[in-house]
Amino acid sequence: MTARSSSLAKYKDQIHIFRLRTSCVSLAGNIDLEEFVMAKDDLSAADIKAVCTEAGLLALRERKMGVSKVDFTSAREKVLYRKNEGTPEGLYL
Questions:
Q1: Which of left, alpha, beta for 80 (phi over 0: left; psi -120 to 50: alpha)?
Q2: How many helices (H) and strands (E) does the chain have?
Q3: DSSP code, position 64
Q4: Mutual orientation of helices 3-21 and 45-61 as an angle, nearest 10°?
Q5: In a 3-state reduction of DSSP, which class is residue 21?
Q6: Which of 63, 61, 62, 52 is nearest to 25 (CA)?
Q7: Who wins on pLDDT, 16 or 7?
Q8: How far is residue 53 from each of residues 24, 49, 60, 69, 76, measured CA to CA in Å?
Q9: What is the pLDDT of residues 34-87, one digit of tens each?
Q10: Structural contact between residues 54 and 79, judged by C-beta atoms closer than 8 angstroms
Q11: Dmax over Cα atoms in the chain, in whole Å?
Q12: Cα-flanking dihedrals φ and ψ of residue 52, to 5°?
């Protein structure tokens, strides 16, 4: 398996996980899930689930009718912060 086919498979898997996790959620019209997959954040399946859950909770707290791009962006930042919280500064993984 080449690096290109591996990255394509990872992309397809991640977009599938995002679609699966947002299938029961009302999304605002401005959401492009591919944008979140294309970001070079190296999200695992658990991270994607956490982002989708957190985005839904943020929208619920604000009593919105749907989850917006702002909710997903805030959720991604929060999840990535928690993920990197235990990593000592200057340590490259």
A1: alpha
A2: 4, 0
A3: -
A4: 30
A5: helix
A6: 52
A7: 16
A8: 11, 6, 11, 14, 10
A9: 888 888 777 889 999 999 999 999 999 999 999 999 999 999 999 988 887 766
A10: yes
A11: 46
A12: -65, -40
What does the block give as tokens for 34? 């591919």
Q: How far is CA 15 from the centre of its chain?
A: 10
Residue with tokens 């707290």: 61
Q: Nearest CA to 51 among 14, 93, 13, 10?
A: 14
Identity of residue 50: A
CA distance 63 to 59: 6
The encoded tokens of residue 33 equal: 């899930």
Task: List the one residue out of 73, 71, 75 whose CA is nearest residue 28.
Answer: 71
For residues 33 and 15, give the distance between their C-alpha atoms in angstroms, rounded to a whole number.
7
Which residue carries 């604000």 as its tokens? 62
